[in-house]
Amino acid sequence: MKLTFAGVSAGYTEIPAVRDASVTLADGSFVALVGPNGSGKSTLLKTVYRALKPSAGRVLLGSEDLWRLPRREVARTVGVLGQEAPGGHDFTVRESVALGRYPHHGTFARLTAADEEIVRDCLDRCGCLDLAARALSTLSGGERQRVLLARALAQQPKLLILDEPTNHLDPEHQISALELAASLGVTVLAALHSLDLAAQYADTVLVLRSGRIHRAGPPREVFEPALLREVFTVDGSVVDDPVTGAPRVLLRPLAVEGP
Ligand code: ADP
Ligand code: MG
Question: Where's the ABC transporter domain (predicted)?
Fold first, then answer.
């Protein structure tokens, strides 16, 4: 599903936290949203999963204004792993992931055998099968994060919104979560702090700076030393992974002299 931000501003006070964002995400692309703390990443994502209405501009899902579509249609199309802790901590892991199926049915409809199979498959793919009967409230941060990813996958979305999906995850699960997201073939918009993971997985990187889209493009072009210094206040460079050939980002403290 194609996603377009057309002059989107959004925020919490009269001063917008995101200003005049305009960019189109091609269908099936993996787009990483990067930027320092407070640069507006979560704010921009909230305008897509309808947690925060833009004060100006439009968000288009395909060619439709997302904020004018029925809520349920958006829930069926857009899968979300958000940053704030969702309620429902009395749910078991299985129940929590099953919630991802409800936009396709209606809240109190019984899940079909096919739904149950999707839930099982998503638990499995996120490494959560062993956790299925546990209460969500008893999980570690990383386990919980994997359950939330499984729920977003259970929605079978056409657009996947991930706000720091690798938060709390160990190295194995950081990689498997992004591999999984990339393998779905749907459009992914993921806020990531690791520029190295962004470089490895994203076709396109959007750099937010003080609420504005500062730069957009492929990782090898975007993560140039001047940008890393200016936006992230670190020295760094892109190198080729000797094994996979993917771009990798190496960071160093500012002003450490190289050879
Ligand atoms: P990021 O996700 O890039 O770290 P956010 O989008 O969360 O940044 O925040 C952008 C700006 O909006 C920051 O200055 C932040 O303090 C402010 N902000 C975020 N959430 C709220 C809120 N609920 N109420 C008021 N200000 C907020
Ligand atoms: Mg954030």
Answer: 3-235
Give 98-148 pLDDT, tens digit per residue.
999 988 876 667 888 999 999 999 999 999 999 999 999 999 999 999 999
Which of 229-234's residues contact partners 24+ apart within 8 Å by CB, and which partners?
A: 229/254, 231/35, 231/36, 231/207, 232/36, 232/195, 233/36
Q: Which ligand is nearest to the CA of 18?
A: 1
What are the residues facing 31 on neighbouring strands? 189, 204
Q: What is the pTM of this model?
A: 0.95
At 32 the three-state DSSP class reads: strand
- 105 CA to middle of ligand 1, Å? 34
Q: Which residue has the tokens 């936006």?
A: 231
Contact 110, 85 (CB under 8 A): no
The tens digit of pLDDT for each residue in 206-223 reads 999 999 999 999 999 999
Find the 132 Cα to ligand 1 centroid distance in Å. 33
**Homologous superfamily in CATH for domain 3-253:** P-loop containing nucleotide triphosphate hydrolases (3.40.50.300)
204: its two tokens: 């396109």
β pairing state of 78-81 and 30-34:
unpaired
Residue 16 Cα to ligand 1 middle (Å) = 10
